[in-house]
Each structure stands twice: as structure tokens, then as C-alpha cells.
Description:
Helices cover 33% and strands 18% of the residues. It is of the alpha/beta class. The strands form 2 sheets. It has a 6-stranded mixed beta sheet with strand order 8-7-6-9-5-10. The protein has a 5-stranded mixed beta sheet with strand order 2-1-3-11-4, sandwiched between helices. This is SsuA/THI5-like domain-containing protein. It holds the Pfam family NMT1.
Amino acid sequence: MESLVNAKPRIPLHxxxxxxxxxxxxxxxxxxSEIVELDFAEVQRPNNAFRRVxxxxxxxxxxxxxxxxxxxxxxxxPLVLLPAVMIGxxxxxxIVYNAERGLLSPHDLKGKxxxxxxxxxxxxxxxxxxxxxxxxxxxxxxxxxxxxxxxxAEFVDPPNVQRAPDDKxxxxxxxxxxxxxxxxxxxxxxxxxxKTLFPDPAAEAKAWHERNHAIQINHMxxxxxSLMDTHPEAACEVFRLLEESxxxxxxxxxxxxxxxxxxxxxxxxxxxxxxxxxxxxxDRRLTVDELFDDxxxxxxx
Length: 301
């Protein structure tokens, strides 16, 4: 009875987190906490709520795309990074074209029309960086077509970006020849006309990795500054829970995402920052250390 009386109430946290093999044990209650009580947002896909993360600061802790976070942080949004990578993948398979309209290669994109969900989303930023750095594409020479506004409200799309009419759909525009290529997050569709721009995306990804010695991060975890000010132990506990959930998944034979920890991801984040600066998504080169605070910087060390 005494232990129940003296027990501290758990800290309630509203959290945005996708359901993956690495998070399943946390979300289904297999991994539990005596420190925090997690209230998971009911969203089908986390990226559908990223705007709410950076504009409304709705979540205490959230999964967030790395490029969106960097853009938000550069504009003073009170968010702190945790060194937990939820999704990391090479982006080479995610730019596609309609082969029925003729062959298209990464060297043929000057003056072409390329569609994507939003200009500043992470997959599109990685793909543009690949085309710019590795194939010499002048990004200003492309006509970019988007369907959504940026997650970060203060960002203004470049002048060579136009919004598609409301009645248009990305894949249909590609098939109809209204755009020449598309950056689609789930890659090539089952339509035989759709081919990847890179004939061998896996080989291109391997070569990119050998040149850059990095992975292309998609999503990490962030916490509101107000939470770090009042309950830094809550962020530490979330990190522990995510690590434990990954361990459970690994024991079941599931492949886990890239390593946790700041030093394990320092160079990966540096490359993401470079791509943001090169594409003028942020106006200064953030340092990796300023993305964290004294609490989150040492997590996983």
C-alpha cells in the first residue's frame, strides 16, 4: 500500500509515431513505462501530421522528417532532436518516369517537368541533391510541380515551382504526359509503363554510399522545448522505450533501422544539412550539436 501511495503519477505525453516493426512492441503495450504515459495520435501515416508538428506544436514528442525539422529549427521553432532514426533509406528508387513516352535518364532533365507531393519534403530533397551533386543538374532549370504547401509555413517555394490544379493527381499527370518524371514516396507503381529514372537504383545507392559514407535519413524523433524544460526525464524515457522496442523487434528477426545515438548519426545529419543549404531550404549551415540539448545529446552514447 505504501508503494502505491508514494508512486509518482506518470507524465502524460501526446506522441506522433508510426507503426513499424521497430515500434510495434511500444505501441501494442509489450514495452511499458512507469515514468511516461503515451497517448498516440490516431493518424494513418505520420507524414500526414508533420505540418501539425511544426506549425501547431501539437505533440510533446513526435516522429518528424529530418528536412522538415531542419527547416523548422532554422526558423526558430522550439523543437529539440533526439538521436533516434525511425526511417532511413536510399532515395534512388523514388523518382520515376513513363517509359511509354520514351527513355529518360538523369542527364535528360534540364527543362523537364518533375512532379512531387511538396517541394520541401525529405524524399524530394534527397532526390534533388542526388541529381544536383552527382549528375550536375541545375535545379533552377527544372519546372517543379507540387500538390501541397510546405510543412514549414515560413518557407516560400522557389519561382520555378508551380502548384498543380486541385483536380490533378501526381501519377495520372505522369501517365498523361503532363509531367516528365515524378518523385513518389512509395516508388514505382505496378503499372508496367512506370520505370525508375535510375536503371539500377541499388547500384546507384551503393555508389552514393561509398562516396558519401552516409545514410539518407528520412525520419527522426523530436521533442518540444517546453517538455525539455519541464520534464527532460520524459524524453530520456521515450528514447529508452524506442530502444527497447527495437530490441524486441530484432529478437523476432525484424530488420531495425539505422543505429541510434548522436555520434552514430552525426555525419548522416551533416549531409542532410548540406543538402538543405545547397537547395536554399535553410539560410545558414546549422551545426549538428545545436539541434540537440544537453539531455538529448548524450542519449545512446
